[in-house]
């Protein structure tokens, strides 16, 4: 499998794991290579959306080629120039070698041959031999170095483009994930390979041109014959390369699913259920089924390539054989010299070799262009949220946040999640949002952070529609503990500081946040305190590497770290707490809610929790059901009303009362 086919070069752990691996978060499954947790994604495959295989028009192809060349040029001008020089040298060496060999042979078989007369040719052949030995190595190094440089710049540009996407619409789309995966492959070697392919083509052109000119001096018929063989070669190789690119595209899903099942079999997150439920063979069979399907497709294309290339090889051999018989006849008849014969043999072999190499380069360039199309598509992806041309800065919240008749669904073909939600969170007040699983609570959080926009209705920040604000400025004013918060393979201090990067290295600030979240004592007990790595991914197991050994935190301990991360933004205007204590023990939960209650005082807060004891003292409680706010009021008021909230509260309270009853 070549680099372009490699479905997942990462092979390692996730740099950030969504928390709550075994909880249902309602997120769409995302078995993206190097991305989502496979356990969370276990509900299904990558989903659809990949669409048809790509095909490039001439104009688009030329545009891509120009941009790829510009990328390579920017990455390393010196290396591009070096490669041009080396390509010219590599093209000229075989032609000159054949020509000087002819001169030596003709000199030897001609009248009055002397060593001194032949010495310059011999020296030339020596130099050419030295060049023939060194140029390929130099070219190989220059090629690899250019690819490394291009990779760096192309990756930088690719992920800058991904970071520029303001919302989650594209990242949550499996079709976009497929493109991104291919774009990453393209960025790794695509533009560099395009340049080296173009230079390889030029090199083949020099070899072919040189040999054809040489052949013309021997026989224009032979030169014409060799030239005629070019057309079917080019055609067949281009068809094969198109088919190869289409195969890459069509097997992308299968490769991702195969990888997903393979990781399920090896990742510690999944190991418990895999062992307890005896799922090993089940997932292995699924993995093998995917692999078989991918292999069958690769085999089909491979066989076609074999047939095409076999036919080409036979054609080449037939031309070479016929030419050889002919030139021997000419030499026997005295119409050609031994030197002519040698140059003819070298020319036929050299032309055919260069032709095959050139066509292979052309096919590689074509394939790189098709992959580069994905790179360009991701780089040129329009923002997934409509951004105002003159966004307003989000002012410090003074009045509150208001949802007005908000309707939302994840796509036109998806069901409505919110169907006219009207709700306000007044400044300085706390609102608790409760509802059954899948009611849309976390979705509402995503809208408040403007990861998505409502399809109808609006969300107002002090009366200003979120769509009129700069999303980044808005998010600076929001602090959050997401239900599926990130667990980063970083140190504890860094895991907290990512809540506000200005706190990176500011230990007093980080520790103060941890103290507020009730995490400080737990952190101090870790082997390296705040510097302890919260991952074992980087531990190689060698002596002296203990600093990298890392630890594995429990779910509740992670939750405290995530809470500290959110509390780092203590001056934020809106604090969103989506199930901030679901993994905590009763003591810890009580402690955390006491902390949060204090923290909430005078702050604008949205609290989501299934533990109704945790939300009862919020200023207001809203019940989300059937996509609407079904009930709104204080705890006592809602209990008295005897509606859904009262029913949920009664069920929970009864559970506790029964448990303590004598
Ligand atoms: N990215 C997504 N694409 C498509 N549908 C989604 C996506 N995220 C969530 N959903 C769907 O939206 C609905 C609401 O999910 P959401 O996570 O908002 O519910 P919730 O009230 O937070 O549930 P829970 O209490 O279980 O956390 C669910 O039916 C879920 O399947």
TrEMBL record:
Coiled coil: none annotated. Keywords: ATP-binding, Membrane, Nucleotide-binding, Transmembrane, Transmembrane helix. The chain crosses the membrane at residues 80-101, 121-142, 194-215, 221-238, 310-329. Its main location: membrane. Residues 33-50 have a biased composition (Gly residues). Residues 401-651 form the ABC transporter domain. It is a multi-pass membrane protein. It is found in: Cell membrane. Residues 84-367 form the ABC transmembrane type-1 domain. InterPro entries: AAA+_ATPase (IPR003593), ABC1_TM_dom (IPR011527), ABC1_TM_sf (IPR036640), ABC_transporter-like_ATP-bd (IPR003439), ABC_transporter-like_CS (IPR017871), P-loop_NTPase (IPR027417), Type_1_exporter (IPR039421). It comes from the Bacteria. GO terms for molecular function: ATP binding. Residues 1-50 are annotated as: Disordered. Gene3D superfamilies: ABC transporter type 1, transmembrane domain (1.20.1560.10), P-loop containing nucleotide triphosphate hydrolases (3.40.50.300). This is ABC transporter ATP-binding protein. It comes from Streptosporangium oxazolinicum.
């Amino acid at each position: 499998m070549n680099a372009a086919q490699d479905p997942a070069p990462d092979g390692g752990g996730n740099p950030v794991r969504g928390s709550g691996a075994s909880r249902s978060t309602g997120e769409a499954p995302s078995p993206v290579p190097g991305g989502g947790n496979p356990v969370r994604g276990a509900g299904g495959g990558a989903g659809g959306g990949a669409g048809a295989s790509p095909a490039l028009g001439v104009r688009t192809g030329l545009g891509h080629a120009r941009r790829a060349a510009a990328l390579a040029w920017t990455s390393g001008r010196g290396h591009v120039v070096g490669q041009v020089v080396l390509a010219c040298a590599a093209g000229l060496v075989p032609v000159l070698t054949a020509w000087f060999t002819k001169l030596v042979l003709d000199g030897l078989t001609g009248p009055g041959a002397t060593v001194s007369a032949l010495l310059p040719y011999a020296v030339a052949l020596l130099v050419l031999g030295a060049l023939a030995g060194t140029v390929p190595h130099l070219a190989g190094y220059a090629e690899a170095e250019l690819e490394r440089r291009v990779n760096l710049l192309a990756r930088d540009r690719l992920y800058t483009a991904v970071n520029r996407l303001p919302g989650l619409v594209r990242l949550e789309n499996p079709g976009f994930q497929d493109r991104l995966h291919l774009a990453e492959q393209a960025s790794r070697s695509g533009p560099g390979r395009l340049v080296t392919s173009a230079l390889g083509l030029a090199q083949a052109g020099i070899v072919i041109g040189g040999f054809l000119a040489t052949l013309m001096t021997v026989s224009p018929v032979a030169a014409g014959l060799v030239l005629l063989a070019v057309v079917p070669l080019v055609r067949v190789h281009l068809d094969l390369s198109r088919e190869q690119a289409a195969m890459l595209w069509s097997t992308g899903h299968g490769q991702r699913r195969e990888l997903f099942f393979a990781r399920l079999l090896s990742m510690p997150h999944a190991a418990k259920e895999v062992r307890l439920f005896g799922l090993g063979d089940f997932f292995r069979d699924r993995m093998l089924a995917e692999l078989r399907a991918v292999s069958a497709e690769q085999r089909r294309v491979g066989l076609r390539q074999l047939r095409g290339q076999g036919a080409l090889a036979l054609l080449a051999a037939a031309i070479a054989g016929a030419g050889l018989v002919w030139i021997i006849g000419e030499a026997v008849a005295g119409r050609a010299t031994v030197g002519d014969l040698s140059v003819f043999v070298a020319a036929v072999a050299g032309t055919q070799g260069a032709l095959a190499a050139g066509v292979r380069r052309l096919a590689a360039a074509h394939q790189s262009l098709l992959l580069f199309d994905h790179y360009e598509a991701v780089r040129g992806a329009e923002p997934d949220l409509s951004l105002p041309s003159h966004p307003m800065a989000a002012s410090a919240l003074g009045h509150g946040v208001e949802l007005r008749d908000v309707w939302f669904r994840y796509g036109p073909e998806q069901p409505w999640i919110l169907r006219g939600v009207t709700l306000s969170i007044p400044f300085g007040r706390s609102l608790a949002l409760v509802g059954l699983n899948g009611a849309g609570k976390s979705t509402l959080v995503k809208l408040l952070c403007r990861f998505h926009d409502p399809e109808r209705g609006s969300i107002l920040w002090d009366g200003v529609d979120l769509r009129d604000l700069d999303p980044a400025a808005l998010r600076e004013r929001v602090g959050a503990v997401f239900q599926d918060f990130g667990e980063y393979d970083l140190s504890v201090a860094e895991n907290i500081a990512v809540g506000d990067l200005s706190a990176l290295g500011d230990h007093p600030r980080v520790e103060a946040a941890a103290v507020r979240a009730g995490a400080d004592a737990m952190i101090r007990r870790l082997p390296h305190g705040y510097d302890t790595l919260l991952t074992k991914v980087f531990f190689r197991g060698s002596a002296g590497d203990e600093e990298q050994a890392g630890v594995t935190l429990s779910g509740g301990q992670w939750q405290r770290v995530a809470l500290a991360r959110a509390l780092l933004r203590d001056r934020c205007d809106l604090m969103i707490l989506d199930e901030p204590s679901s993994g905590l023990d009763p003591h810890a939960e009580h402690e955390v809610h006491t902390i949060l209650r204090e923290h909430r005082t005078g702050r604008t807060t949205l609290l989501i929790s299934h533990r109704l004891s945790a939300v009862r003292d919020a200023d207001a409680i809203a019940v989300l059901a059937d996509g609407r706010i079904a009930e709104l009021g204080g705890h006592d008021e809602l209990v008295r009303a005897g509606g859904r909230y009262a029913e949920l509260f009664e069920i929970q309270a009864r559970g506790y009362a029964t448990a303590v009853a004598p």
